[in-house]
Amino acid sequence: MDEPAPHDLLTVYLGDHLAGASAGRARLARAARAHAGTGTGRALAALHAEVVEDRRELLRWMRVLGVPRRRHLQVLATVAEALGTLKPNGRLVRRSPLRTVVELEGLLLGVEGKAAGWRSLQELADAGGPLGSRLDADRLDVLLDRAERQADVLERLRRNAVRDVLAG
Question: Which residues form a coiled coil (predicted)?
Answer without folding.
Answer: 137-164
